[in-house]
Design goal:
The chain is an all-alpha fold. It has a single domain, classed as Up-down Bundle (Chorismate Mutase Domain, subunit A), CATH 1.20.59.10. 71% of the residues lie in helices and 0% in strands. The relative contact order is 0.20. The chain binds prephenic acid. Prephenic acid binds next to α2, α3 and α4.
Length: 161
């Protein structure tokens, strides 16, 4: 029988779902020669998260810190992929999704679930948080880049509340 999912597992599932969108974002940035960092967009995300925090019984600083880490992890993946594609002088020939009408709305749609999962995690933290997190990451990482991205996305997860 499989073990029941812990709040940490559930949170990491959502973190991975958000990170999975970074590949498509990077493809668009490659095609359109756009910079990875979009400062105004980051500001908009963090403002929305700060506003939504109270509804999720989270301190605004906790919620925005967690989302800032999600954004940093997304940029890490994007920079790495763009480098890889530069070396090959070619990006994968997969179907493109538009940034403004598809990818950013998909990122926004995950905000609510991530806040729910973060609050459940905070309410019931594992005894040895940092160790449980490190073990969970190494178990689920598919490749070195996504392992690094998960580490970055959860960099402040176990900090004292
Ligand atoms: O929307 C973008 O352009 C993204 O690259 C995604 C994202 C994010 O993770 O939400 C990451 C980096 C940008 O600075 C802004 C937002």
């Amino acid at each position: 029988a499989s073990k029941p999912a812990t709040p940490l597992d559930t949170l990491l599932d959502s973190v991975e779902r958000r990170l999975a969108l970074a590949d498509g974002v990077a493809l668009l940035k490659w095609d359109q020669n756009m910079p990875v960092q979009a400062v105004a967009r980051e500001r908009q995300i963090l403002d929305r998260v700060a506003e939504a925090a109270a509804d999720h019984h989270l301190e605004p600083r906790r919620a925005t810190g967690f989302f800032a880490d999600q954004i940093e992890a997304s940029k890490l993946v994007q920079y790495a992929l763009l480098n890889r594609w530069q070396l090959k002088q070619q990006a994968p020939d997969t179907p493109r999704l538009d940034l403004k009408t598809a990818l950013r709305p998909q990122l926004d749609a995950l905000q609510h679930q991530l806040l729910i999962d973060l609050q459940r995690f905070d309410r019931e933290r594992p005894a040895d948080c940092a160790r449980a997190l490190a073990n969970a990451i190494v178990e689920r990482a598919r490749d070195p880049l996504h392992e690094l991205a998960l580490q970055r996305a959860t960099g402040r997860l176990c900090e004292a509340l």
